[in-house]
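Dear colleagues,

As part of the handover before I leave the project, I'm documenting each prediction I ran so the next person doesn't have to rerun anything. This entry is a single chain, and its sequence is reproduced below.
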Amino acid sequence: MFELSECSEYVSKDKRNVALYLCLSIISIVLYILYTQQLNQYDLYVLLSGLFVCSTIALLMVYPNCSLLSLFHVLIVVVLFFSIWVENKYLIGAFLYILLSFHVLWYIYGKCIIFKKGESWGLEIPQYITAYIWTAVLGYKLIV
């Protein structure tokens, strides 16, 4: 569907394809929630922030820019942090989908999919623990 250019200083083309299609699926889910759910102000701001971050990352998978990708990589974590206080069940489910997708991709690739070869923040163990805690909290909120 999209022709990605090869860039030696950037994430591999295969990983970019996976990240792009994950972003497109997330954007679809978020747009569905935006148009079908009555959201409170906080949920709406978190949703719009997440939509902006995800859309920008999708664009960065097609049009490479290393410094912007590093910035938006951090913003993913910030938006996920604020998802803990979201109240809408559909939005909580969307964040759970994102976290579970990240878990699967971390398992497959051994690190975040948008890290290039040899790149790391050096926080792998705390990162996994934090992701498991977020998943547990959001899962609990979805059930209750």
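The chain has a mean pLDDT of 83. Residues 13-143 form one domain.

All the best with the project,
I.
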